[in-house]
Write a structure and sequence with these properties.
This protein is mainly alpha-helical and about 300 residues long. The protein is about 50% helix and about 5% strand. The protein contains eleven helices and four strands; from the N terminus they run αββααααααααβααβ.
Length: about 300
């Protein structure tokens, strides 16, 4: 057979094989949609939000803490304040909860501070210390005002197996007021008082002496104390101008305490759960509104009287 015909026959066979294969694969049934391992996912269109873009905030031109001027004209002071404002304003979930929780405690804190002659700005110190929760630090500090055991006892708080008044909201706030007044007598200005609450009075005084400088804003301090007052200031700025930072809480959004009744106790309670039931309440409410009760019973020393609060 001529070579030309062999080549033509070869090409014809290749084309035939290709067409047969194509016809076979075109007849293979598709995998049903529900059996496919890789189904195409629908595109979800989320609604647009007023906070779908990051925006910058206008900081106040002037600011005070406890009536004392914050030197915002100094670049590092302005930058440190701005840092804490952005960190806290854009931690929206935490800030919302702080605002909602503040309605339960700020009025009473303001009252106790005012009666002691302490500026109301110090309520933001409690916010910075604990977020208005009875927290415990790894170092052993407890409660809203984060007292160490020795300091709590020094300022009149009872701390025992049964009772820890660092967790008593009113009593610990009164103790904090005493501490702040003593610190003010030592340092002479409220800004130093706030800083020393974080660092300790001895530690802060030592830094003042080492650096020949009394003014907090002119001291070189560890990062925690360096940021501490500015965190307090950030809370003040945001709380006093919530709408400017995108927070629009209504009156009904804030948490409220229920009406509470006080029961005077001057003798031992062997079982607090049974006692609470006999008072028409329960153990959960007893612990919720009296977190200073630390055990399942209460041993009362002679001459001692406690007030236990339960919902009306």
């Amino acid at each position: 057979m001529p070579r030309f015909h062999l080549i033509s026959l070869y090409i014809f066979c290749c084309v035939a094989v290709f067409l047969a294969a194509l016809a076979y694969w075109s007849k293979t049934p598709e995998i049903p949609q529900e059996e496919s391992r890789f189904q195409e996912q629908p595109i979800v269109h989320y609604p647009s939000s007023s906070r779908d873009s990051i925006r910058l905030f206008d900081l106040p031109k002037e600011l005070t803490f406890a009536g004392e001027k914050v030197p915002l004209e100094e670049p590092d002071v302005f930058e440190r304040l701005e840092r804490e404002i952005y960190v806290n304003a854009y931690w929206e979930s935490n800030m919302i909860l702080l605002m909602k929780r503040s309605a339960k405690f700020f009025p009473e804190i303001e009252r106790i501070l005012s009666e002691a002659g302490i500026p109301s700005d110090f309520k933001y110190l409690a916010l910075a210390e604990s977020g208005l929760m009875n927290v415990a630090s790894p170092a052993g500090a407890r409660g809203f005002w984060q007292f160490m055991e020795s300091t709590g006892e020094e300022y009149g708080l009872e701390i025992s197996k049964d009772v820890d008044e660092r967790y008593h909201f009113e009593k610990s706030t009164a103790a904090a007021a005493k501490y702040l007044l003593k610190a003010h007598a030592k340092f002479g200005d409220w800004t130093a008082v706030a800083a020393s609450y974080n660092m300790g009075q001895s530690g802060f005084s030592r830094r003042q002496e080492e650096q020949f400088q009394k003014n907090y804003y002119q001291l070189y301090l560890n990062e925690e104390t360096s940021r501490y007052l500015f965190r307090i200031l950030a809370f003040k700025v945001i709380f006093e101008n919530p709408g400017a930072f995108g927070f629009h809480l209504r009156e009904k959004d804030y948490y409220k305490n229920p009406s509470l009744r006080s029961i005077r106790v001057d003798s031992d309670i062997k079982d607090l759960a049974s006692w609470a039931r006999n008072q028409g309440s329960n153990y959960k409410n007893l612990k919720l509104y009296n977190p200073w009760l630390r055990d399942k019973d209460l041993n009362v020393k002679r001459g001692r009287v406690y007030e236990i609060r339960l919902p009306e």
